[in-house]
Design brief:
By secondary structure, this protein is α+β, with helices and mostly antiparallel strands. Helix content is about 35%, strand content about 20%. Strands 9-8-10-11-12-13 form a six-stranded antiparallel β-sheet. Strands 5-6-7 form a three-stranded antiparallel β-sheet.
Length: about 350
Amino acid sequence: MSAQQRSSNHFCPGHKSLNSGETPMPLAPSIELSNGERFIPQHYLQYEQTVQTVSEILNDIEQVDHYLLFCGDDEFGLYLQVGSIGPDNYKDLTKRRIVYGRKWRIERYTPTSEVIQTAFLALKKAAEHEVRELVTVRELSSGHDATPFSTHVDLPLMARFPELVMDNLFSLGELPDDWLQGIRFDGRAIRTKDWSTRSNGNAVVDLELDTPVRSKSRSGFGDFTLTVVLDKPSKTSLVHGVMNALIAYSDRRIDEMFRYRGFARFSQAVSPLRIGSLSLASRQSGEGGKQFRAIRAKLSEEVDKRRPPSFGVGALAVRNKRAIRLENALEGHLPIESNP
């Protein structure tokens, strides 16, 4: 049976499952799955994303906490954006407001799965941004609280004067509670619950947080404990460990809550082994025949040609060009020259 015949025989069942903005490649076959269903895989489709198609995709993602997903089209192209509703981390807690994260660019030829995963990453980073602002350190001399892990801290200033912020390498043989004195998450004190030293020298620290009194957090951080592993037992590494553990906790919450059409793609209830089997089944060797494979290769090449960035300008362009010249027989599409 020819590739054209296979495509014709099995096109209708797979076609019914297509989203807006998706079109099968010419001669694209559908794949028979282990449950007897047939489906046209995402890598056999062409895409033309618009505000309408991206809106439909985002609408199929269940709302996570107090985060909203938006999309639009400006002078730079399509984008999606996260909006967060709740109390402001730095202002009056009795008032609620909406704040927005950065715009995540969506190329018009982006596959549906990649749009969904961009939304997933945008939600994770919006939640992380908030968690970073909720970790505060009290300066004992002034009595004021600071947010050292906030992304709004002046990085060029720190790079100019690193001696003002580098760790003084102060370390102790124990992990007393006063290492966390003045450290708060969402206004909650953090205490050492238990700790032990492993044979490799690492310290494992179990931490607990006070009951929240008046939460700023838009996300659900109720009663939970943190476990931090330190390869260098010091106050600085412990505070960094607390921050990393809070981000990991936030990420895991979104892993379980993020659902597309009711399916929690990144949940730990999903088996990586079975995902691997499904992925292999959707890429059956020889499926579609030689003519289709040639069509697919040509279309993929056309998309790849649209992806290269500019070298940049000035010193950055010089550095990038030097790095590429050092490569021997580098494949792929090279960056393009910037317009003057």
